[in-house]
Known about the structure:
The protein is mainly alpha-helical and 369 residues long. It has helices spanning 13-42, 47-68, 73-76, 78-91, 117-135, 143-162, 167-184, 188-208, 210-220, 231-243, 268-301, 305-329, 347-364; strands at 98-101, 104-110, 113-115. It starts with 12 loop residues before the first helix and ends in a 5-residue tail after the last helix.
Amino acid sequence: MSQSTKLKEKPDYFLLTVIILLLTAGIAMVYSSSYIWAEYKYSDQFYFLKRQLLFASAGVIAMVIFMRIPYNTWNKYANYILFFCYLLLVLVLVPGIGMVRGGAQSWIGVGAFSIQPSEFMKLGLIIFLSVFLASNQKYIASFKKGFFPSLILVISAFGLIMLQPDLGTGIVLITTCMIMIFVAGARLSHFFGLALIGLVSFVILIISAPYRISRITAFLNPWEDPLGDGFQIIQSLYAIGPGGLMGVGFGESLQKYFYLPEPQTDFIFSILGEELGFIGGTLLIVLFFFLFWRGIKVALEAPDLFGRFLALGIVSMLTIQAMINISVVIGLIPVTGITLPFLSYGGSSLTLTLASAGILLNISRYSRL
């Protein structure tokens, strides 16, 4: 595809500033939420901070590189990228290669350094689906030529992720892709039929795994099992509640003293709410809103269909993941086990998030902003 708009010298500085602010807040909160646990487990209160700085550095380098690679380059290699992502998802299921953590066989690596293939698949599938939708938009209203091939692609990736199992990442992936397909022009009637199938499948997924049923019941009434399945959400609410308007102060959280398990990961927003209060939590949500708004603007102003779908997919993925994480933390939905973009401790998640942001920033260099 050719670029119909001349390359600008600079990316969208507003979007770049929002990303830097989110990353900076994440580094600060990883240290504040983890130093007690790090001192206890590793005799080094900076253990998680140092590793997060390493992940952030790798992610920023990836972001800068991807920000300078013309986004249409990914169009040429979409098939290879998707194949590599599928290969990783298969390898992680092989005994002896995949690593089990928290009951899920979702990592490949050695010791403490590992990658999470499902994170690669999120970006890889967005790239491939953007190519497919841009090339076949005139067929997307057709179930046979457009909607069904897209659906098979998404369901196959979702199925491999669920074999680990990783419901949270699977939900983010399938929701992001459905948004892209809907915007491309798929018929509502196709989505209604898919919704019925999805509802039945969702019920089967819950029934097939007792721990998922426990999460549902814990969500409805966490006090029924306060020391078991309801423990995390209760401790999360105990953190957010005392935060009040202004918070108890940075570094002064009580819940990170072994009440909230590993608070630097999925429940980092709980510690932020406790230490920085309603104002701090609101400001963070505002930053995510700005990320969404500016990302959608980049998508709308992109010079071609591939750029529009790619920007839409990336900003949808980041926004949906943030919404799910925060909703879990404040008790609006059951626990799914998913990180908060730019903030939660983690290697693959943070690095791939920043790499995705780099692609979005490159698209902004061509957009008519």
